[in-house]
Amino acid sequence: MNKQDLVAQLVRQLEASARSALSARDAAAAEAREGATPDEKREDARAAHQLGTLGKAQQKRAQQALAEVDALARFRPTPLPATSKIAVGAIVEVEDAETGEGRTFFLAPVGAGVTLTGPGGDGVLSVVTPASPLGRAVLGRKTGEVVDITVDGELREWQISYVG
Known about the structure:
The chain is α+β, with helices and mostly antiparallel strands. Helices cover 45% and strands 22% of the residues.
């Protein structure tokens, strides 16, 4: 699997998130300026304040997404042999020891929670960062090892079935 394709896909999704946030910011600003008459604005200053707060939050969301895009510009993940220790840039599959439920993820420096499509539309991968509980649990581990992860308040054992 070409990891640079995954990085490019992640960049596109983060850029789209930034555009969406900037659009929401602009809409909130326009609503604050034009959405009410001057009398209505005086009567309900709270609405104008809320719109301003919403605009600032969307600006912050856009800045975060763009900072993540910048971080990915320098990110060049390489293929890992199956016997390698898990590091940032790895594609990892884990299986629940009890249920056999599996999950595939891409361990990236940023972009937590984004869903990527595998090559040719084959499957999906979640983006996990080293700061997440799952990312922290698998870093430095190898195929075949078992890690304990709390999911929905319940401790579960996940076996690492693939590292690439």
